[in-house]
Amino acid sequence: MLVNLKSDEVLSEEEISHAVATNEIPFGNDLLETLKLGEEHRKVVAAMSDPSVKASALKVGEMIPEFSATDTKGIVWNKEGILGKPTVMNFWYIGCAPCIREIPELNEWMEEVPDVNYLSVTWNTAQQIGSIVTQTPFLFHHLTDNLFLFQLFAVQITPTTILLDKVGIIREIVVGTSEEKRAHLLSQIKRLAAE
Q1: How far apart are alpha carbons 136 and 6 in whole angstroms?
Q2: Contact status, residue 79 vs residue 65, Cβ threshold 8 Å
Q3: Which segments of the chain does DSSP mark as H helices, in order?
Q4: What is the dihedral of CA 94, 71, 87, 85, to 10 degrees?
């Protein structure tokens, strides 16, 4: 439980005995930042819930349209640049605990199937994801501050993982995460890479 105190408020002795400082909690400062982003996150989800956005969302079997996004290293990603290799797009944000827990396994995909474009997509800024992707670490190319791709697929729940084949056709859209879902995704990535 997070307690925000006004300048004239104090905790009781019992409350103090149970208190843990933010810097003693893994990613504590990130969690505080997420709380500040709460209103922004609600706006993102509301925008994705708009019936017109949902109706126009891309679906399995459709071709990804032209897009352009710059990752945190300054590399520009677009439709032309991803063609020729399968592409994994993992949608997440810093307040999504399941997203963060799956990162080590996602990194293993890169070792098992290296000839794939691995993109993480978040509406958070590069600064906001910085400590998580460094400490965890998260080795994908990070497309930050990106609502366009969220809207393109009408992503409402994170993590959502999307697989594109070598010609840019959407082959899988998996919402949520579990051991079974990640195993399925990895088998599909291997299949797409071998085609």
Answers
A1: 33
A2: yes
A3: 13-18, 28-36, 38-49, 51-55, 79-82, 97-112, 126-135, 147-153, 179-194
A4: -160
pLDDT tens digits along 78-110: 999 999 999 999 999 998 899 999 999 999 999
Q: Strands 160-164 and 170-175, how do they pair?
A: antiparallel
How far apart, in whole angstroms, are the C-alpha atoms of residue 191 and residue 195? 6
21 by DSSP, 3-state: which? coil
Instruction: Look up residue 29 and give its two tokens.
Output: 């400062």
Q: Are residues 107 and 139 in contact, defined by beta-carbon separation less than 8 angstroms?
A: yes
| Residue 110 token pair | 């890169």
Reported as a single tens digit per residue, the pLDDT across 129-156 is 999 999 889 999 999 999 889 989 988 8
Angle (CA) 150 153 158, round 5°: 60
